[in-house]
């Protein structure tokens, strides 16, 4: 855990070292937000990070969306994603469940052009499956917006695990 003050006072390299992985394979968010220091709180830091995402070009946001792994994938994922998916039970799927998720993931990517993104912390595999089925009915614009909302939730949770507003004594 690092304090907001330590982040504010640190170098760009240290800042990105701690926060570069908050947005899946997209350290550019931390790199850009470093220039906006100091931050009064972790909540403000997160708000500024999301502003960078919303202000990014469509192609940059698409790359961010595409950087997320398929849920329930058996491929190597970041430590953050592995922990989140493990917590939702996606690492313990039966062969049949895995095939169902793989099929839904493929359909989703085919329709929207990026993987299904959901803040799975606190969810079960059934919650995730139900959300995926419901969101397949979204139009592309609505799903783009929903995916960004999910990224905001995911990154807020990740930041809460990394940054504290309190001094470490």
Automatic annotation (TrEMBL):
<feature type="domain" description="Oxo-4-hydroxy-4-carboxy-5-ureidoimidazoline decarboxylase">
    <location>
        <begin position="11"/>
        <end position="160"/>
    </location>
</feature>
<keyword id="KW-0210">Decarboxylase</keyword>
<comment type="pathway">
    <text>Purine metabolism; urate degradation; (S)-allantoin from urate: step 3/3.</text>
</comment>
<dbReference type="Pfam" id="PF09349">
    <property type="entry name" value="OHCU_decarbox"/>
</dbReference>
<keyword id="KW-0456">Lyase</keyword>
<dbReference type="InterPro" id="IPR018020">
    <property type="entry name" value="OHCU_decarboxylase"/>
</dbReference>
<keyword id="KW-0659">Purine metabolism</keyword>
<protein>
    <recommendedName>
        <fullName>2-oxo-4-hydroxy-4-carboxy-5-ureidoimidazoline decarboxylase</fullName>
        <ecNumber>4.1.1.97</ecNumber>
    </recommendedName>
</protein>
<dbReference type="InterPro" id="IPR036778">
    <property type="entry name" value="OHCU_decarboxylase_sf"/>
</dbReference>
<dbReference type="InterPro" id="IPR017580">
    <property type="entry name" value="OHCU_decarboxylase-1"/>
</dbReference>
């Amino acid at each position: 855990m690092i304090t907001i003050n330590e982040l504010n006072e640190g170098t760009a390299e240290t800042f990105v070292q701690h926060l570069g992985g908050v947005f899946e394979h997209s350290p550019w968010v931390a790199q850009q937000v470093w220039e906006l220091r100091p931050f009064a709180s972790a909540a403000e830091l997160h708000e500024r990070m999301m502003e960078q995402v919303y202000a990014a070009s469509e192609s940059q946001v698409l790359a961010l969306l595409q950087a997320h792994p398929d849920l329930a994938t058996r491929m190597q994922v970041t430590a953050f994603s592995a922990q989140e998916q493990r917590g939702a039970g996606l690492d313990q799927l039966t062969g049949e469940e895995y095939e169902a998720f793989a099929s839904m993931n493929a359909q989703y990517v085919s329709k929207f052009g990026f993987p299904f993104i959901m803040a799975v912390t606190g969810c079960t595999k059934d919650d995730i499956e139900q959300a995926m089925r419901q969101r397949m009915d979204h139009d592309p614009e609505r799903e783009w917006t929903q995916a960004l909302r999910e990224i905001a939730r995911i990154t807020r949770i990740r930041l809460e695990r990394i940054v504290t507003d309190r001094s470490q004594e």
